[in-house]
Amino acid sequence: MKRLPLLKPIDNLEDAAVLDPAVKAVQKGVESVIRPQWLRDILHGVPIGHALHPLMILAPAGAWLSAAGLDLVPGTERASRMLVGAGVISALPTAAAGFNDWSQLHAQQQRVGLVHSAANILATTLYAASYVQRRRGRHVSGKVLGYAGLALVSGGGYLGGHLSYAMAAGANHAEDVPHLVPSGWQPLAPLDDVPERTLQQRYLGDVSVLLYRRGDRVSALSAKCSHLSGPLGEGTLIEGGDDPCVVCPWHGSVFEIETGEVVHGPATAPQHRFRTRVVDGMIEVSLPG
Ligand code: FES
Fold it and tell me: CA triplet 87, 85, 47: central angle to 5 degrees?
């Protein structure tokens, strides 16, 4: 079975460089509004270990879909109106989380994301108007506006799915690492060839490994950033405490080198951490499990 021809224009959207000035302007706006690092981390989903935005979508989408069902049932105007209003209110933090993620994506993802967000903003506006009409007792126009909003939010949702699944925005880009590394201990590099207190990159087959050495103690992480595959071997080392960190050169995610845990997003998934040992002067690594 082939993809519906009707959906082919989305490929053109990915390459629509005409959207880039708008992308830049919106990105600047997002970065100036959502400034505190702790807020950015929460909206990215760092505390829950994966993107927050897809979870939050449940609230407005669920409320609006329920309202669309109730609009077919006589005598449910009040409940339907409350659901429409709840959807509008919950759409605001959902959009904030989405824009926060979007501001740290690749150009092609941002073009699709811009249209996704425009459709959802328009849908939310229609639902807000629908709520106002319902409050005024104009239920027919309230329902028409609601169904128009539902059509738009469905189109926006399709683009969101394309962004997440076809373009892998928000996915863990280092998920494949355990499937590429042979099981058991693997020789990686002679200890003496690894300078102390610097970021070093070595390869285990096709898998790049980030090394950090203090004396005989060696830490090793997957060097492919879980956010969008950025090269952590070219990142910046932050020392100064017990827990040295690496900053991804692409979007600034910060990971603890010892544990691979995310300190700051946009990454939400930790880096795979290798166990290490030194045998006859050779650093060996293995992935737990
Ligand atoms: S690739 Fe985006 S933070 Fe690393």
Answer: 35
217-222 and 207-214 strand pairing? antiparallel
User: How far is residue 262's CA from residue 241's CA, in Å, rounded to a whole number?
Assistant: 16
> What is the third-level CATH fold of 177-286?
Rieske Iron-sulfur Protein (2.102.10)
For the stretch 77-104, pLDDT in tens is 999 999 999 999 999 999 999 999 999 9
| pTM for the whole structure | 0.91
How many angstroms separate the CA atoms of 55 and 58, rounded?
6
- State how far the Cα of 71 lies from the Cα of 83, in Å rounded to an integer: 11
- How far apart CA 268 and CA 170 sit, in angstroms, is 8
Pocket test for ligand 1, best of 101, 208, 251 (most atoms within 8 A of CB): 251
Ligand 1, from 250, 262, 268: best to mutate by most atoms within 8 Å of Cβ? Answer: 250
